[in-house]
Amino acid sequence: MAKVTFVEPDGERIETEAQNGSTVMETAVINGVPGIIGECGGACTCATCHVYVDDAWTEVVGPPSNMEEDMLDFAFDVKPTSRLGCQIKIKDVLDGLVLHVPTRQG
Predict the structure, then answer these.
(1) What are the b/e assignments for 62-99, b being 16+ CB within 10 Å?
(2) Which residues does residue 91 pair with via DSSP β-bridges, in sequence order?
(3) Which of 2, 8, 38, 43 has an alpha carbon within 20 to 30 A of 21's alpha carbon?
């Protein structure tokens, strides 16, 4: 299991445990993280699981795929560290991952 921390826009930190092989979106939804909707269920056909990867984690998480970049066009307030939570698979190397939740989803 990996620990994943979601930082809400108001600074509240929500610490969760994530199963290896699950996604950031699934972890957020299971743990009731406000602001992460996951409307498409993880099919990368919406942008309602948009998160900002903390600067310290961007290299470890890696860049979005071309398909994910296309979907990020529908997200609100996209930044260089924007990712879709459904496209980030949990693995041991992500233990301690910190993600920031946008003020709203696209």
Answers:
(1) eebeeebeebbeebeebeeebbbbbbbebeeebeebbb
(2) none
(3) 8
At 97 the three-state DSSP class reads strand
Question: Which conformational region is residue 70 in: left (phi greater than 0), alpha (psi within -120 to 50 degrees), or beta?
Answer: alpha
Residue 51, H or E segment: strand 50-53
Strand 82-84 with 13-18, pairing: unpaired
Q: What is the pLDDT of residues 62-85, one digit of tens each?
A: 999 999 999 999 999 999 999 999
Residue 106 clears pLDDT 80, i.e. is over it? no
The whole-angstrom distance between residue 95's C-alpha and the CA centroid of its chain comes to 14
Contact 18, 2 (CB under 8 A): yes
Sheet with 97-100, edge to edge strand ranges: 13-18, 2-7, 97-100, 50-53, 82-84
Q: Which of 102, 94, 103 is nearest to 17 (CA)?
A: 94
